[in-house]
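Researcher: Let's do a round of design. I'm pasting the structure tokens now; please hold your answer until I've finished.
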């Protein structure tokens, strides 16, 4: 082959489009096939096993007593989260304060309430009347202006909400504090240089940026608290877990009623996860 012919062949090869050859991954397909087989086995076990008693599940899934218990679960979650994060934000600001007394008190609160199990805190507030039959308002170590019975003030629902909120506040304080610390210090200096008041600096400049860090962890805490409300069954409050126990103790359909509770928890946590996704996307706008 002459030199011009070689050059012509090289030119044609250069002009020919490149062919993309997809890499083959037989192990991936094998793993996917194994997962599909396992999923099919799980689905078969759920559908064909009569011990799950799906008709009983359908009968009780939207029973009035179960729906009321779901609403109480949501109420306890809302009270625990709202009160917990309000108090937690205050504690976070105290932890970041240059005042040693405020920061020490906030640290001690977080240390105490994160160290004691939630169930013990609930039992403490539920039995507070054993320690203080009557609570009074007045001058410390001095005369009392008025007093009232502890049982009249703190019932089971109040004790549950109080215990959940105070427990959640300890974790919320660390979540908010980490979010505030994640904001670049230059943002604080720039806001101060513009002459913005401290409160406006916090709510208009620092907190919106901190929400990018706060929201994911806070969302996980909210979802965890939905399930964590089940511990209030020790106070005989008819939330979801307690209510299904009452029903299956009466009719003996243990697995079916536990499945009812599991389905409702899945529904609630899925809905909250969707809300968390959109809130995260909202606060994540503008991030490169």
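Researcher: That's everything. Go ahead.
Model: Designed sequence:
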């Amino acid at each position: 082959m002459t030199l011009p012919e070689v050059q012509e062949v090289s030119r044609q090869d250069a002009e020919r489009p490149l062919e993309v050859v997809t890499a083959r991954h037989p192990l991936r397909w094998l793993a996917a096939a194994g997962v599909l087989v396992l999923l099919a086995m799980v689905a078969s076990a759920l559908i064909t096993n009569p011990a799950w008693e799906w008709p009983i599940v359908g009968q009780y899934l939207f029973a009035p007593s179960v729906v009321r218990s779901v609403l109480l679960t949501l109420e306890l979650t809302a009270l625990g989260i709202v009160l917990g994060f309000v108090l937690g934000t205050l504690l976070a600001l105290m932890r970041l304060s240059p005042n040693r007394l405020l920061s020490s008190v906030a640290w001690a609160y977080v240390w105490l309430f994160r160290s004691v199990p939630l169930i013990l805190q609930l039992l403490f507030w539920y039995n507070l009347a054993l320690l203080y039959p009557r609570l009074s308002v007045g001058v410390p170590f001095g005369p009392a202006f008025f007093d009232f019975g502890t049982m009249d003030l703190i019932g089971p629902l109040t004790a549950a909400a109080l215990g959940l909120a105070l427990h959640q506040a300890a974790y919320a304080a660390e979540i908010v504090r980490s979010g505030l610390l994640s904001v670049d210090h230059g943002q604080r200096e720039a806001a101060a240089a513009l002459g913005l008041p401290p409160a406006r600096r916090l709510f208009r400049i620092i907190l919106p940026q901190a929400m990018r860090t706060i929201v994911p962890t806070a969302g996980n805490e909210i979802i965890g608290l939905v399930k964590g409300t089940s511990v209030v069954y020790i106070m005989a409050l008819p939330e979801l877990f307690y209510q299904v126990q009452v029903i299956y103790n009466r009719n003996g359909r243990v697995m079916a009623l536990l499945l009812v509770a599991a389905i409702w928890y899945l529904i609630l946590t899925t809905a909250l996860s969707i809300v968390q996704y959109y809130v995260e996307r909202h606060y994540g706008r503008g991030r490169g």
